[in-house]
Fold:
Amino acid sequence: MILASLPNDPSRDADVPALIWEIRRERRMEFVLENFRLLDLKRWKKLQYMNFNSNADYFLGPGLTFRLKFLAI
Structure:
C-alpha cells in the first residue's frame, strides 16, 4: 500500500480519514473470525455498521460470495 495513493472507497464515512478507513478495513479482514469486529465497532462508536436492516448482506457473514458462487454451479 502506498500512502500517497490510498484507494477511494465510495462507502467510506465522511468523518473517517482515508488512512484510518484503510487501516480499519484491513483490520476487519485480518480478524474476521476472531470476534474482534464488535469490540472494534464499539471502540470506534460505529455500531450502526451492524444494522442488518439497512444492509442485509452483513447478516450472511464473510462467506457470502463463496457460498453464492458455488450454489450457482
